[in-house]
């Protein structure tokens, strides 16, 4: 194997590392500083292959428990600062991942701007923020980090002092000192309310200002003004799958706070506009419509008598204040002095703003018309409405089944719904959906579960009246596996009037769309037949055709846990492809919702590449994608980074929708056949190991920190849905997370090597890697995960397993699989080492590897002591800190 060239240390890392070292010395003492430095340089030497550099353990052995905690904290902070430095280095714009390049590429293929605009006219692109518990860092830590990033930007601009006269380097050192003394672990559990507040900060700081600015840029590139096709969604306060703490109150809270954030933003913007638009009737021509709006405002101010724009804005401001009060029950922070009627809806607010904008545009060839703050505000109102983000509801199909069974039983319709077969269930549910008579009764005593489910749909119905139809549009059904799973949700929605049976010849109406989430390999395979049957029901088919689109959600993590990386990736691809004709037949556009996480085992990797790698014809301008955990801070932590990521998602969607198919029919056929074979081989190897190996479950539970991970307070939802320890019942997040900690990262690669190894036509594989975006993207992600895994370190976890004989055998199989995957991947891509052709990622990973190893070794020590029954609280804390630190260093581990 060729050895990698030496890596050059990023100067920012060196700078921040030096300041951190100073802080450690000042607060932790000379001794800790020296120990840390010693271990750091020994680790770096070891990673560089310096002869005899095997000192890491010796250095670590010398640490007492207090020092261990301090040391882990230091390395965690170092990783955090290294991430920051790396993010600064290039907000990595992937080649072609911007609108102008996408449009140019499409025009190169003969796709006209008109065709692009026509697509955008019907498009919907939505990142959906969720509270999936993979963000280990507290918000306070992230805030300090962001302040450092801002200070460094100031330094880049050539300044040496902040606006307040503080020396920038000292200000950065202060933030690092604060970081050093901020507790990284949460002591208290996280509540849903906290998750709601955390995500709102991203809306205020990022999405509200960034989206309108992006649209303004795109209008210039497109030469036209598209509708607001890019919006933001949320699950926080609506996703109850396995989270009993999300109830009607949380839904109400989420929506009310979101409304408050949107309206406060508009009020602030209006306030600045009022200051800006000082045009006087003595000097400007002002159209009648503006004068009328000014007159209606009731603004009595004498000084503004000749300033109709300001008066008009005062009136709009007053009405918006009244809206704020009406919708949130609170006065805004800067109330109006005038009393006014609230706006009925965002469209009414927009109309007033447009009057003002048209007034400005009507004079002097529209010099004042161009975009500006008012243009951005109009765009914001169109995009965020009064609801800010569409909130999805989600619940598990098992819960719906129990709720419907109870409703039917209490209503005397069916005593044992659960005992009915699918055919009988569908017949019964359709009968109920054909009538507007609800099943529920105010006088019945329902189980807690049913009462809570009913309460939340009633809360949703109220919310739709208050905030408008965009506030909740989708209801996701986890573990969907049948038509009745979809119909059951419509029954539950009917209880709150959100499904209306068509009577007297009127068609039925579904206010909220029931969306199946297919997430096992078998369910992905049945997705086309389930959707065919669902669309085949006349009442559903009619709704779908009238609506013009339907969403299907596909789950990356659970399909991976079920069938391994390659099979999951392929099944998702194949299911999407097979769904396309089903939708065409139903006369509806297909909207796929990709449920993916940050780690490769949960569908992570470049979103740009992933969207472009979708099967041809399956992205029809409509796509939703989950964004969650640590990925939210990584992709939307600052405005610049957010703009890059949102633009990449948009341009990828345009390309995937309009670019001609890259593969010839012949290649498509032979590549598909090859992937079927590979997927089969990978599935067999993966299932054999994970589900077919005696003692594997115990091996996994003892080798990795899975049990300790449950103790981390990183999310409001419980770590597990059930008490079972079966891998089938484990949530995908802790499964992937714990393999990452032990550096095995099994879900990201296991099985691929077996499949590639057994595949004889290597030339065909090379063709696939060269010509097929799907395969290229799959292999690129595989390569990233392999580069972050380290079986040498993983082997050090082996003594944690009780049955050593079994552990040796299982680990031997894992190591063999890793070797095959590694060797085959290199052969396939023609590289002499991993990431040879991806120098940026190679540098990034190799820079941080040395810092992870000591953390792993300490984690192992602490796990040993913890599991041997030592009850010093610092041991548990040390384990949790180490989990936190390793996750931070790996960047996308959860
Ligand atoms: P879920 O998410 O367990 O909430 O369905 C799975 C995942 O994203 O890993």
Strand content: 5-15%
In DSSP terms (H or I, runs of 4 or more residues), the helix count works out at 35
* Inertia-based shape: globular
Rg to the nearest angstrom? 29 Å
List low-confidence stretches. none
Q: Can you summarize the main beta sheet?
A: 9 strands, parallel
Provide a compact summary of the structure.
The chain is mainly alpha-helical and 894 residues long. It has 35 helices and 11 strands.
Describe this structure in words.
The protein has 894 residues and is mostly helical. The protein has a domain at 665-837. Strands 3-2-1-11-10-9-8-5-4 form a 9-stranded parallel sheet. α4 (99-108) runs parallel beside α24, α9 (248-276) packs parallel to α16 and α30 packs across α31 (773-788). The two termini are 30 Å apart. Residues 132, 241, 478, 557-558, 595, 597, 602, 731-733 line the site of 2-phosphoglycolic acid.
Helix and strand layout, with pairings?
Elements lengths: L10 H37 L8 H6 L3 H25 L9 H10 L4 H10 L1 E7 L8 H18 L11 H13 L11 H31 L10 E2 L13 H29 L11 H9 L11 H21 L17 H16 L10 H13 L5 E2 L1 E4 H14 L11 H12 L14 H20 L6 E5 L4 H12 L4 E2 L8 E2 L2 E6 L2 H16 L1 H10 L1 E7 H8 L1 H22 L2 E7 L11 H6 L9 E7 L1 H7 L2 H20 L6 H26 L5 H8 L2 H4 L22 H10 L10 H7 L3 H10 L1 H16 L2 H6 L7 H26 L9 H29 L5 H18 L4
Parallel strand pairs: 1-2, 1-11, 2-3, 4-5, 5-8, 8-9, 9-10, 10-11
Antiparallel strand pairs: 6-7
Bound molecules: 2-phosphoglycolic acid.
2-phosphoglycolic acid (PGA) binds next to helix 20 and helix 28.
List keywords for this structure.
two-stranded antiparallel ribbon, binds 2-phosphoglycolic acid, globular, 894 residues, mainly alpha
């Amino acid at each position: 194997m060729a050895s990698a060239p030496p890596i050059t240390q990023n100067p920012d890392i060196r700078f921040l590392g030096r300041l951190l070292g100073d802080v450690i010395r000042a607060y932790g003492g000379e001794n800790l500083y020296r120990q840390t430095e010693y271990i750091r340089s020994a680790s770096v030497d070891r990673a560089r292959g310096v002869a005899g550099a095997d000192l890491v353990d010796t250095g670590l052995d010398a640490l007492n428990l207090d020092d261990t905690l301090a040391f882990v904290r230091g390395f965690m902070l170092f990783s955090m600062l290294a991430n920051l430095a790396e993010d600064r280095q290039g907000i990595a714009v992937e080649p072609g991942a911007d609108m102008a390049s996408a449009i140019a590429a499409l025009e190169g293929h003969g796709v006209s701007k008109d065709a692009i605009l026509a697509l955008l006219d019907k498009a919907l692109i939505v990142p959906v923020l969720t509270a999936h518990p993979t963000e280990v860092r507290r918000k306070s830590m992230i805030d300090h980090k962001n302040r450092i990033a801002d200070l460094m930007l100031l330094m880049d601009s050539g300044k040496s002092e902040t606006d307040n006269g503080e020396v920038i380097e000292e200000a950065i050192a202060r933030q690092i000192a604060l970081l050093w003394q901020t507790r990284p672990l949460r002591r208290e559990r996280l509540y849903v309310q906290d998750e709601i507040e955390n995500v709102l900060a991203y809306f205020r700081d990022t999405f509200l200002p960034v989206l309108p600015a992006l649209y303004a840029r795109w209008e210039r590139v497109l030469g036209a003004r598209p509708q607001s096709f890019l919006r933001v969604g949320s699950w926080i306060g609506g996703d109850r799958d396995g989270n009993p703490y999300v109830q009607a109150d949380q839904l109400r809270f989420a929506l009310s706070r979101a409304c408050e954030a949107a309206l406060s933003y508009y009020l602030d913007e209006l306030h600045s506009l009022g200051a800006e638009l000082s045009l006087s009737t003595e000097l400007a021509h002002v159209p009648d419509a503006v004068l009328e709006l000014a007159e209606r405002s009731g603004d009595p101010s004498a000084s503004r008598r000749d300033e109709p724009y300001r008066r008009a804005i005062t009136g709009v401001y007053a009405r918006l204040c009244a809206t704020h009060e009406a919708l949130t029950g609170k006065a805004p922070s800067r109330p109006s002095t005038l009393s006014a009627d609230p706006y009925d809806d965002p469209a009414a607010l927009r109309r007033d703003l447009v009057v003002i904008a048209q007034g400005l545009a009507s004079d002097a060839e529209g010099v004042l018309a161009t975009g500006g703050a008012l243009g951005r505000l109009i765009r914001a109102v169109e995009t965020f409405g009064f609801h800010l983000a569409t909130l999805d509801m989600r619940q598990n199909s098992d819960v719906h089944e129990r709720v419907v069974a109870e409703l039917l039983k209490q209503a005397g319709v069916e005593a044992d719904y659960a005992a009915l077969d699918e055919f009988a269930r569908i017949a019964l549910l359709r009968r109920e959906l054909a009538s507007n008579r609800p099943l529920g009764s105010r006088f019945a005593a329902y189980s807690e579960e049913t009462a809570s489910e009913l309460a939340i749909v009633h809360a949703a119905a109220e919310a739709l009246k208050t905030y408008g139809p965009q506030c909740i549009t989708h209801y996701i059904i986890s573990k969907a596996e049948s038509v009745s799973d979809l119909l059951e949700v419509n029954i539950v929605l009917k209880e709150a009037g959100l499904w209306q049976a068509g009577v007297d010849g009127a068609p039925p109406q579904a206010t909220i769309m029931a969306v199946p989430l297919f997430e096992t390999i078998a369910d992905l395979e049945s997705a086309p037949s389930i959707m065919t049957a669902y669309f085949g029901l006349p009442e559903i088919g009619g709704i779908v055709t009238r609506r013009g689109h339907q969403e299907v959600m596909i789950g990356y993590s659970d399909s991976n846990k079920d069938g391994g990386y390659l099979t999951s990736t392929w099944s998702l691809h194949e299911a999407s492809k097979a769904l396309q004709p089903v939708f065409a037949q139903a006369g509806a556009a297909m909207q796929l919702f990709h449920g993916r996480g940050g780690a490769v085992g949960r569908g992570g990797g470049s979103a740009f590449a992933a969207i472009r790698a979708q099967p041809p014809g399956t992205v029809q301008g409509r796509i939703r994608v989950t964004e969650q955990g640590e990925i939210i801070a990584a992709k939307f932590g600052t405005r610049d980074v957010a703009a890059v990521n949102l633009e990449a998602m948009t341009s990828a969607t345009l390309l995937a929708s309009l670019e001609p198919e890259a593969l010839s029919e012949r290649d498509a056929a032979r590549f598909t056949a090859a992937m079927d074979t590979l997927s089969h081989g990978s599935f067999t190897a993966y299932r054999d190991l994970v589900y077919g190996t005696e003692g594997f479950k115990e091996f996994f539970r003892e080798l990795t920190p899975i049990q300790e991970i449950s103790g981390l307070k990183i999310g409001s939802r419980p770590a597990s849905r059930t008490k079972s320890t079966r891998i089938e019942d484990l949530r995908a997040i802790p499964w992937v997370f714990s393999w990452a900690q032990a550096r095995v990262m099994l879900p990201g690669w296991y099985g691929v090597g077996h499949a590639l190894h057994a595949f004889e036509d290597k030339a065909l594989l090379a063709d696939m890697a060269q010509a097929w975006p799907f395969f290229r993207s799959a292999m690129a992600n595989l390569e990233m995960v392999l580069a972050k895994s380290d079986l040498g370190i993983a082997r050090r976890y082996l003594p944690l397993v009780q049955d050593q004989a079994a552990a040796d055998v299982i680990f031997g199989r894992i190591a063999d699989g890793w070797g095959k995957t590694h060797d085959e991947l290199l052969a396939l891509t023609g590289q002499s080492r991993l990431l040879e052709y991806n120098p940026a990622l190679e540098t990034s990973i190799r820079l941080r590897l040395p810092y992870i190893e000591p953390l792993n070794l300490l984690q192992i020590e602490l796990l040993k002591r913890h599991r041997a029954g030592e009850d010093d609280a610092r041991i548990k804390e040390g384990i949790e800190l180490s989990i936190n630190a390793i996750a931070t260093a790996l960047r996308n581990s959860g």
